[in-house]
Design goal:
Layout (H helix, E strand, L loop, with lengths): L25 H17 L16 H13 L4 E5 L2 H12 L6 E4 L9 H5 L3 E4 L10 H6 L5 E7 L8 H10 L3 E5 L7 E2 L2 E2 L6 E5 L13 E5 L2 H10 L29 H31 L6 E3 L13 E5 L8 H10 L4 E2 L17 H4 L27 H8 L1 E4 L7 H18 L2
Parallel strand pairs: 2-3, 2-4, 4-5, 5-8
Antiparallel strand pairs: 1-9, 6-7, 8-9, 10-11, 11-13, 12-13
Helix pairs in contact: 1-8, 2-8, 3-7, 8-12
């Protein structure tokens, strides 16, 4: 029996507001209080040694960098003020020549490649496969003599095919960058994402798996050369006493940014990091519970996960089978929203939206980066890159049929049950 949808005037599944994405307890409050108390005596960097006047990283920040890097079997970690800053720092560490190319999926935040553009690099977009991650086959097709790096965006928490991407990057002598912003603690064949490529970055905002109660980001690497330049790039290329330029004169050694993270955010990150594994496992259980309970609706296809990989479900993505429903993905998600469930339609608006994947956004269609110039898109080229000719047909088809739900760690059992009911209700109503 088809129940009348709330979007058509029927009774919604729930009217209760879903919880905030994170819970901050007394332990978080206590951590902040300790930092402020230290600041009253010693300053915000939490040291009582007046000789360390050039110290940049406070004790909370150093602890998080050390612990996060260790988790990912990395020698070095750098905490910065956002995920975008972390990726920008990676491009600063690579220090590419202007006109170099970086290959990335067009289904990602602009933060995955904005730093590349600021460094004079030209993004080249490769298609995705059924995992919704970048397709290694298309990546290799896009490599030219100008290619310098590949970005592996672990989409929605689902790992990229790192074995194939590693093989390609080594074959062509390219940097393999991991963008793990949606994939904290995800695993590729039992290896944590972020521990496989040359260098990796995570966002730690309120929308991610765990946060510093604001915008933060972190990067890790085992490459000493990349670390040293990344350290400098994130902090004005100055010689801090706790950094690799400690023995240099106090001066700016190359063009760099200031992406410093503060001690308050660092202190919360340390608390949240200690609980992250438990929270993420809850998200996985809730996501898999939802998938199990709707498994008898084969027309809703989950994001493909390779055997041996661990998806951490920043988003639970469902794809509508073709020619099965009397609606598109946008209408499907809007109907679920009306039932009181925070559902999203196609990622980046792919489908009926006038934009969609990044190559359709004005920055690329208008080459709008540096004033009226077409830099870097025309640098040392006969003509500028024309992104209007970009085409990722497989991705546009797959993404236009996806709906998305974020299984927050704060969800209650009732939230999960209501979500399952809403999906079933809407699918039943619209099924042909």
């Amino acid at each position: 029996m088809r129940k009348n949808l709330a979007i058509h005037g029927g009774k919604p599944i729930t009217k209760r507001k879903f919880p905030a994405p994170h819970h901050f307890g007394n332990d978080d409050i206590s951590a902040i209080t300790k930092v402020l108390q230290k600041a009253n005596s010693f300053g915000t960097r939490a040291t009582d040694d007046v000789q360390l006047k050039f110290l940049q990283r406070g004790t909370e920040r150093q602890k998080f960098e050390k612990d996060f890097a260790a988790l990912h079997n990395s020698k070095y970690g750098i905490l910065v003020n956002s995920g975008t800053s972390a990726l920008n720092t990676i491009y600063g560490a690579i220090n590419p020549d202007p006109g170099s190319e970086v290959i990335c999926t067009p289904w990602t935040s602009i933060g995955s490649i904005s730093g590349a553009i600021f460094q004079g690099m030209v993004p080249i977009f490769a298609d995705i496969d059924e995992t919704l991650c970048i397709d290694p086959i298309d990546v290799e097709k896009k490599i030219t003599s100008k290619t310098r790096a590949i970005v592996a965006v672990h989409m929605f928490g689902n790992p990229c095919d790192m074995e194939k991407l590693l093989e390609i990057s080594r074959k062509h002598n390219l940097f393999l960058i991991e963008d793990c912003t949606q994939a904290h603690f995800s695993k590729y064949q039992n290896k944590l994402v972020g521990s496989i490529g040359e260098i990796a970055a995570w966002g730690l905002s309120e929308h991610q798996h765990f946060t510093g109660a604001g915008s933060c980001g972190v990067l890790v690497t085992n490459n000493t050369t990349l670390y040293e330049r990344a350290y400098g790039f994130s902090d004005q290329a100055l010689n801090r006493i706790d950094g690799p330029f400690r023995n240099y004169p106090y001066s700016h050694h190359f063009l760099a940014q200031n992406y410093s993270a503060n001690e308050l955010a660092s202190s919360i990150l340390n608390v949240q990091f200690s609980k992250a594994s438990i929270n993420i496992e809850k998200k996985i259980r809730d996501a898999q519970n939802i998938l199990n309970q709707i498994s008898d609706i084969p027309e809703l296809i989950p994001q493909k996960v390779r055997d041996g990989d661990k998806h951490t479900y920043w988003n639970l993505s469902l794809m509508l089978s073709k020619n099965v429903f009397k609606c598109d993905a946008n209408q499907f998600s809007e109907a679920i929203q009306a039932e009181g469930i925070p559902f999203g339609g196609p990622y980046l608006g792919t489908g009926n939206h006038p934009l969609g994947p990044l190559y359709k956004h004005p920055i690329f269609t208008n080459l709008d980066a540096f004033g009226k110039s077409k830099y870097p898109f025309d640098y040392k080229r006969i003509r500028a890159v024309d992104y209007k000719l970009s085409k990722c047909s497989n991705g546009e088809d797959l993404m236009s049929r996806t709906v998305n739900f974020s299984p927050l760690s704060t969800l209650t059992e009732e939230n999960v049950i209501n979500t399952i009911e809403a999906i079933r209700k809407v699918a039943t109503y619209y099924k042909k």
